[in-house]
Design brief:
metal-binding; 9-stranded parallel sheet; Tagaturonate/fructuronate epimerase; alpha/beta; binds zinc ion; UxaE; metal ion binding; single chain
């Protein structure tokens, strides 16, 4: 703390000192707000906001008094203070006219790199984006995620606005919590309400099921869809009995839930909000016709969505490129894009990390109005930095990931070709980072992140976590460079 004395003295005179041996100064964070000056610094691996001056902002920030100033930890309470005085630190919605990129940050340290990456691109960042699954696998809370994003924009002096997505939320109780904590976007995961296997059934089988629905529901759908032609931009869509029945059986329950959540929560909010519907985390592929059916029902029931995530054909596995028929993907994506445009929302692409084969197609048909989610790939970039800067730690993590892969496969669907992963003892330290160019190794390390970060030794101490974070913190500029390169490649191929 004594090391910060001179920072405080200089700050009183309105000067921002440069880095010293013991103190890293985040110059872009400097703020002079109604007689109170603030500056973010790091010493001994901990970040603080140093503040001097007079006024309520100074008084409200909690910290340790040193000289005439105060040294404030990056606590949840202090984040709330920043939110009250600096609007740009509060998550905001972006509506349907501009591209957004979900940049999930599992570690709580990737956002500065993400902010650097989006500069000069036609896209707004959703810096906070974690699913309940990701949060629980890493022992983090939604507040941890929101705090990290707010402090990152403050650190970088980034005032362009950012979003916070309660990603893949299913339960009503989680929706309530997330909304109260101040998210600006909700991705409602409806997969629990979408039965699988309907598509494979015969007309007779599905007809029997359909006839079990209440009479008025059957009539409602029949009247609205049979013997009609729907003109959607240049598409002309019509439903036969079998198609309609299958969509009803697949989506009727999910639609009820979407409408319920919208009416009960989203429509009652007194702030701008991005509401996303996700029907992607299911085996039931969303054909363009099914997409239209869902969107048409939502619209007729007054539900305003900002984005919708279909389950596309082929496979969007974590951390690797698209698997599947690219031509079919292009055909269907062009129709999905037309449907989204017709109903006035953005198409949302989930598991968008590393899908370079299809990014140009997405760019072509969504014309810069799209939401793309990434998350795991920035963890892999962190692993790449570990491989380069702390080979010993990388080796232990790699071995652990291979040993514990079976556990991770309960949560994630991947199909790595394990034979392509070169044995660890045949790779020199200098070449360890090459594992991050191998699809199978990427996937193994991708899905085991939660296990790696929460693993404990026999005494209950973290096996990797502390060393992992310290290594990245010591090499934060390297991590930023890796993200700018890798996420930047995403933005470029997406034409954003
Ligand atoms: Zn998804």
């Amino acid at each position: 703390m004594e090391k910060l004395k001179s920072v405080i003295e200089q700050l009183e005179q309105g000067k921002v000192v440069s880095n010293t041996e013991n103190v890293k100064v985040y110059e872009k964070s400097f703020k002079d707000h109604e007689h109170v000056r603030l500056l973010m610094v790091k010493t001994n691996g901990n970040r603080y906001i140093v503040t001097v001056g007079e006024g309520t902002l100074f008084d409200e920030l909690q910290g340790k008094n040193i000289g005439n100033g105060k040294v404030c930890p990056l606590s949840h309470e202090n984040r709330l203070v920043l939110n009250r005085y600096f609007d740009f630190t509060v998550p905001r919605a972006f509506g349907t006219k501009i591209a957004t990129m979900g940049l999930g940050d599992r570690l709580g340290i990737a956002s500065p790199g993400h902010i650097e990456t989006i500069k000069g691109h036609n896209v707004k960042p959703i810096l906070a984006q974690q699913s309940i699954r990701e949060l629980s696998l890493t022992n983090r809370t939604m507040n941890d995620m929101l705090d990290a994003a707010a402090f990152a924009v403050f650190q970088e002096g980034y005032e362009g606005g950012y979003g916070a997505d309660g990603d893949h939320i299913k339960q009503e109780s989680d929706i309530k919590i997330a909304l109260e904590l101040g998210i600006s976007m909700l991705t409602l995961d409806c997969s629990d309400y979408i039965p699988t296997g309907i598509d494979a059934k015969s007309l007779e089988e599905v007809r029997t099921e359909f006839e079990k629905l209440p009479q008025d529901i059957q009539e409602y759908y029949n009247e609205r869809y049979l013997n009609q032609i729907f003109d959607v931009n240049i598409l002309s869509l019509s439903f036969d009995e079998e198609t309609l029945i299958k969509y009803v059986l697949e989506y009727n329950e999910a639609l009820n839930y979407m409408v319920y959540v919208y009416n009960e929560y989203i429509s009652k909010l007194d702030r701008n909000f991005d509401f996303e519907i996700s029907i992607d985390e299911t085996e039931t592929v969303t054909s363009p016709m099914a997409h239209f059916f869902v969107a048409n029902e939502l619209t007729s029931k007054g539900v305003k969505v900002n984005s919708l995530a279909p389950r596309f054909c082929g496979e969007f596995q974590k951390g690797i490129d698209y698997i599947g028929d690219v031509e079919q993907f292009e055909r269907e994506l062009s129709e999905h894009a037309l449907i989204a445009e017709y109903f006035g929302y953005k198409l949302s692409i989930h598991s968008g990390s590393d899908k370079f084969k299809v990014f140009p197609i997405i760019a072509k048909y969504t014309k810069g109005v799209v939401h793309v989610k990434t998350a795991g790939t920035n963890w892999l970039e962190a692993v790449r930095v570990i491989a380069k800067t702390n080979p010993d730690l990388y080796r232990r993590m790699h071995a652990f990931a291979l040993e514990n892969l079976d556990v991770a496969l309960k949560y994630y669907h991947i199909t790595p070709d394990m034979d392509t992963i070169v044995p660890l003892d045949s790779v020199s330290d200098d070449n360890l980072a090459d594992y991050m160019n191998n699809d199978a190794a990427r996937q193994v390390l991708h899905v085991t992140y939660g296990l790696i970060l929460t693993a404990k030794d026999e005494n209950g101490a973290p096996l990797f976590k502390d060393e992992f974070f310290k290594t990245l913190d010591d090499n934060e500029d390297e991590y930023t460079r890796a993200l700018v390169l890798h996420i930047g490649k995403h933005l470029e191929t997406l034409g954003l």
